[in-house]
Amino acid sequence: MLFTKKNIATSLSKEETLNQIKTITKPISLNNVFDVNSDENYEFEGHFDNFSFTLFPLFNYGLNQLLRPKIIGQIETSNDQTVIKLEFYLPKMITYVLLLLLVIAILILNTASIDFNTFMIYGLITMLGFYFGFLYRINKAINIIKARLN
To answer: What is the CATH number of domain 2-149?
Structure first.
């Protein structure tokens, strides 16, 4: 599920931009889906196809790292600058968990004697926490890429 899109402009060439992103990206490991960043030389794991790429922030088994966006990028030239077009997606597993929680919440609301307004307030607070947590992860990834390109 698409969450948001962002563009980053740089004065570097397409090749230099791609090489800079590759220096902070560990090739994705097919043997271990959640690869630990043990040497901390990398910020992302992913793969590249010409000037397109898919990245994931590295996972370190901390609860604050569970919201890792899937980043799909395309490097293009526009006039005298290079533009990185980024799309940030919710991980499929998080989407499934949110849908499951919604179904469970509806079942609880129908069977328990919980006030609907109280339920909505807690639901809103939970969703806002999720939204801002995921937005923080996206902004962190953008700042890491921008810092590498400067």
So the answer is: 3.30.310
